[in-house]
Amino acid sequence: MLLRADPTTFEHVPFESTPWTASPEAKVERKMLERDGEEVARATSIVRYAPGSAFPAHVHERGEEFIVLEGTFSDEHGDNAVGTYVRNPPGSQHRPFSKGGCIIFVKLRQFEMSDSRHCVIRLEHDPRAVVAASSTLLHAFGTERVSLVRLPAGATMKFDRSDGGAELLVLEGSVDV
């Protein structure tokens, strides 16, 4: 399956017009934002775990990163509350679940194989809470930079497309292109 898989093109994917689709596990649904492959795929999704849902233990051959948007996401390594950013390197494994339900933004199979850094960053606030403009670098490796940028209403931000572009997840507000 190829879904918005060309990184050289601009894509706008409105949350409300993207359907929830079933995952292989009961009570876990996803909004597919980008996908290159079938069930094992390079993928970007918003995933919703119903209360009491789980996935069996599995390996992330090309890594996984996610940020918890709602609820608490858990695995055998601990509980991750709203605003927690987790980066699991290639070859890592876990058994994810959510007791009370959660929603995460997740990217799969997008790491350089030599990017072996595991990190868990518990942000001070809900990612949606904005008091003043701020930027937090979450991870950097080679040419990749992962940041959480918070902008107050009416603020502007410019991107230099000569550096290879940008991928944005807008939690609240809008972006003019």
Task: Outline the structure in words.
- The protein is an all-beta fold and 177 residues long.
- The protein has a domain at 16-126: Jelly Rolls (Sandwich).
- Helix content is 0%, strand content 44%.
- It has strands at residues 2-3, 21-22, 28-37, 41-49, 53-54, 58-60, 64-71, 73-75, 78-80, 84-88, 92-94, 97-98, 102-108, 119-122, 134-141, 144-150.
- Strands 1, 2, 3, 4, 7, 10, 13 and 14 form an eight-stranded antiparallel sheet that branches. It has a two-stranded antiparallel ribbon with strand order 5-12.
- A hairpin with a 2-residue loop joins β8 (73-75) and β9.
- The radius of gyration is 16 Å and the shape is globular.
Low-confidence stretches: none
At the fourth CATH level, what is the homologous superfamily of the domain at 16-126? Answer: Jelly Rolls
How many alpha or pi helices? 0
Any idea what the CATH architecture of the domain at 16-126 is? Sandwich
Shape: globular
Q: Strand portion, in percent?
A: 35-45%
Tell me the CATH topology of the domain at 16-126: Jelly Rolls
Biggest pleated-sheet summary: 8 strands, antiparallel
Radius of gyration: 16 Å
- Helix % is under 10%
CATH class group of the domain at 16-126 = Mainly Beta
